[in-house]
Amino acid sequence: MNAISRREMLGKTSLVGSSIAVGLQLATASPEPLPGQTLQPTRPKLKVVVTGGHPGDPEYGCGGTIARYSDLGHKVVLLYLNRGEWTDKPAYDPGPVRVGEAKKACEMLNASPVFAGQIDGKAVVDPAHYEQFHLLLESERPDVVFTHWPIDNHADHRAISLLVYEAWLRMGKKFALYYYEVSNGEDTVQFAPTHYVDITGTEPRKRSACYAHASQAPDKFYALQEMVTRMRGIESGYKQAEGYIRHVQSPDFALPGAL
Ligand SMILES: [Zn+2]
What is the mean pLDDT of residues 97-114? Predict the structure, then answer.
């Protein structure tokens, strides 16, 4: 069997409209085992990028799913639009604390933090930032990207959703694109999931990762988010679940339950 790259395989899989599980099985046919040797099937590892307006957003919206991807051996990056720093109050800069919290949360989820270099509360969406973000996301070579649902009461959340969307278009809609919800009502509005991930087993780690953001009132915000995951669980038949909206033109694979 000719060698086939992960990206080629994923592309072929999406073209025929089948699940990634089928593609993965096809990819396990080689190489031939040596005499006396039993080779275990090797699954290609995905690159998962979970974007968020601020440190903590990916963890609150997708932490259970992130843990599931990590447990499966996939590489996960949490890409934050800013470091939680403020420029209008130089006497108080929470940036270093927020970055430390993000790194701690990422360690708990076995993910890596990346920062896009914008400023908290002052997100810019213009041609220069579209290009900068496109190059940054392209450098990560993602197979799957999660971002905020764009109808959101926080401008930074709307901004990164648009930046991701433009990058997705510029990259030929090649990676799977999912939207997530965070702090419903206060932030995300009018969110009706198309897909669910069972996070019953990984919710404790999600909780720990969210509480790693100790400066951000986790008692208040995690309680709100847990109500959401319990409601999504009722909808989908699990104890707790995270809900997602897959872009209608996205490749149709890559949530942990299908892997
Ligand atoms: Zn946020």
Answer: 97
Q: What is the phi/psi pair of residue 211, to 5°?
A: -70, -15
Q: Please, what's the b/e burial string for 36-59 (b: 16 or more CB within 10 A of its CB; e: otherwise)? A: eeeeeeebbebbbbbbbbbbbbbb
Long-range contacts of 119-123 (CB under 8 A, 24+ apart): 119/82, 119/85, 119/86, 119/87, 120/54, 120/82, 120/83, 120/84, 120/85, 120/86, 120/95, 120/156, 121/86, 121/155, 121/156, 122/87, 123/53, 123/81, 123/82, 123/155, 123/156, 123/158, 123/159, 123/160
Length of the chain: 259
Is the pLDDT at 54 greater than 70, yes or no?
A: yes
Distance 52 CA to ligand 1 centre (A): 7
Q: How far is the CA of 121 from the centre of ligand 1 (A)?
A: 9
| CA nearest neighbour of 11 among 26, 2, 27, 23 | 23
- Cα–Cα distance between 212 and 78 in angstroms, integer? 14
pLDDT higher than 50, residue 176 = yes
Environment of ion ligand 1 (residues, CB < 5 A): 53-54, 57
The CA 22 to ligand 1 mean position distance, Å, reads 36
- Give the pLDDT confidence score for residue 16 in this predicted structure: 31
Q: Long-range contacts made by residues 127-131, C-beta under 8 angstroms, separation at least 24?
A: 129/163, 130/163, 130/166, 130/167
CA of 120 to the centre of ligand 1 (A): 9
Alpha helices per DSSP H over 80-238: 95-109, 127-140, 155-170, 203-211, 218-236
Q: What is the pLDDT of residue 173?
A: 98
